[in-house]
Each structure stands twice: as C-alpha cells, then as structure tokens.
Amino acid sequence: MKKLLAILASVALLASALPTFAQTNATTLEWLYGNGLTKYNDINEFRPNDSITRGEMSKFVTKYAEVQGLTKNYTQCNFNDIAGYDPTLEPTIIEACEYGLLKGSGNTYNPNGNVTEAQAITVVIRSLWGFLDETGAYRRQPYYEAGRALGIITGESLLWVDSTNITRIKMGKWFYLAAAQSAQDVQGLDGEEQLRNILQDIFGDIQL
Fold it and tell me: Which of 26, 55, 65, 109 has minimal Cβ neighbours within 10 Å of its Cβ?
C-alpha cells in the first residue's frame, strides 16, 4: 500500500508540471465551438447541464478524434441495436468505435443509454493512451486512476463517477483538458518516460 501511495504521489507531482488551463463554461464552450465539436456558441442553447446519451456522444467523440488526429484501429464495431436508431448518428457510432473510444458490449451499443462519468473518463484516457488493462475486477478503474493522476478528475470518487451521468459541459471540459495535454504534448515533457513507466507499473500493459 505504501508503495502504491508513493507511486500515485509521484504521478501527481509529474502531472502538476503540466500547464494549467482555465475551465470556465465560457472558455470550454469557446473551445468546443471553435473546433467544431458543437454548433452552439451560446451557453444556454448548448444545454450545459443536460446529460448525454451514448448515441449523441458518438458525434461529439468522432469530431474530437478528428481534431486530435487519432487513427481508426479498432474493428469490433458490429452492433445489432443501432439500425433504425437515428440514421444521422449511426455512422458516427461506428466511427467512435473504430477510433477505439466508445465500444459496446459484444454486439450491443445501447445508443439510448446515458453516458456515465466513468464511461466518459474511459473515453478521455483512451484518447491519450489507448486501451489500458481492462482485466481487473472493475475494468474502468485504471482509467479513473489515470484521470485522477493527470488532474482531469479532481475530487470525484470511484463510486460517484460510476453512478453519475456526465453533463454536456463536464464532458466538454474533460475533452478540453485532454486536448491540452495530448499524447504529443506529454511526450515532449521532461520526465515523460518516468510518467509512462509509473503508469505502466500501476496499470500494466498500457498501449502508449
């Protein structure tokens, strides 16, 4: 336990060296609008406190992946529950999966299900490092711990993120922070190799 606490403290110290960015709703919406992640530039029209479904999230995620220059490298994206859901969103559901960010469960995507904060931080961390080790008792915990280590999750407990739906503005803020410390930026930091080694020590075979 002491070793794990020391490792997490080291990660937090390294993460603190990352540049900090304002996270106001206005700044977040300006970034989202400027990068084409939303068509709204008015905070009320954006509906910041509304939850978001997995189907709706796919468009958000796909555009974010394009902005970040991610590549499609996941192929298990044949879902039997999206036909007839929304013809305008069916292609983005497939794309979000092909980017390896939003997967389903087997052949089920559950497009009408709300996105939890645990699912959201999984998407965010996958955009930086790909899939972490998901073989543990709770497969989202490595993503949660990585989100905490990088300062994206700041106070939410594991129970909270697992049981709370993400709001549109909070999802935007997490994307905003992830984009600010993209994989390319992290790789240019002093101590980046140490950060990678620490994360691998905690989470196992991280695809960096």
Answer: 26
Q: In the chain, where does DSSP find H-type helix?
A: 2-16, 25-34, 43-46, 54-68, 90-98, 117-129, 141-149, 158-163, 168-180, 183-187, 192-203
- CB-side exposure of 18: number of CA atoms within 13 Å? 24
* d(C-alpha 127, C-alpha 99), whole Å: 9
Q: Which two tokens stand for residue 125?
A: 């961390």
pLDDT, tens digit, for every residue of 17-45?
Answer: 444 445 799 999 999 999 999 999 999 99
Tokens of 72: 């499609």
Rounded CA gap, 152 and 146, in Å?
A: 9
> What does the pLDDT read at residue 132?
87
Q: Which of 172, 163, 174, 44 has its CA nearest to residue 115?
A: 163
Side-chain half-sphere of 190: how many Cα atoms within 13 Å?
3
Average pLDDT, the chain: 82
Tens of pLDDT, residues 109-138: 999 999 999 999 999 999 988 888 888 888
Question: Other CB atoms closer than 10 Å to residue 9's CB: what's the count?
Answer: 11
